[in-house]
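Re: weekly structure request thread

Next one in the queue (308 aa):
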Amino acid sequence: MMNLVAFAGALEQGFLYGLVALGVYISFRILDFPDLTVDGTFPLGGAVAASLMMQGVHPLLATGLAIVAGAIAGLCTAVMNVYFKILNLLASILTMIALYSINLRIMGQPNIALLGQETLVSGWKTTLQSVSSGSWLGSQLGVVLLLGMIAIAAKVLLDIFFKTEMGLAMRATGANPSMARAQGISTNQMILLGMAMSNGLVALAGALAAQVNGFADVQSGVGTIVFGLAAVIVGETLLPGLTVFRATIAAILGSILYRLAIAFALELSFLGLKSQDLNLITAILVGAALVIPRWQQQYRKRSQAVKN
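Done, posted below.
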């Protein structure tokens, strides 16, 4: 059985990558824009935040600037696609490749340790320990609470945004670009804005991951897009719906369940799975999430045919 530490760790990673899932949801589902930039913007967020905090910048400001850096990276991908007519997938790959070198430039080395450095997480733990008589809030569960509040806040802000005129215009751009242009919507601007929002969220996740883990690493973004897509697909499978409200809940819920499933699989000793099998588990979970809904549809059709 999964112990409390493993469960709390899965929740922590679930909320953290829930931000990535929300970003991936914007690019893949709202804009219909296959975006691999996130594999570069995740470590970019960590690199910017860690480098600034090491120079004495306040953690909140450093995290905010990390979001801005991620948004700029997303804009670069969108500009290549919109104005230079480079295929969206190829444009994102070019940006991702360039960000590897940029991240190394920012950090000046492959990784930066934040041990003993003031971060949002350390400040949050100190605050909770001073308020709470016990120590449990200042431990891992306190970090889960912080990440949960940030993920929920991001979800609520997205829900509000997509109900505005600009948000509806962005949704129309992804659903039917030709019809959106006929209605006077600047689809190019919507793509630019959406990609900036998407990668800004991913960079926020990267900045928080660096502060939670205590280090920023240039390789930390490997597989980020797979994790984000897995969360979105798993969430949509378990909580199908056409509304943005349900979709954003599904993204966060999918991220949490995905991380819990991985933690549970690694805890099953008789399976012999180890941490290096993470990508294998991911492939199996995503494959199951894609296949199961089709089986369910086929079963429903056969049941209806038998009744008729």
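The chain has a mean pLDDT of 90. DSSP finds twelve helices and two strands in the chain.
Next request, please.
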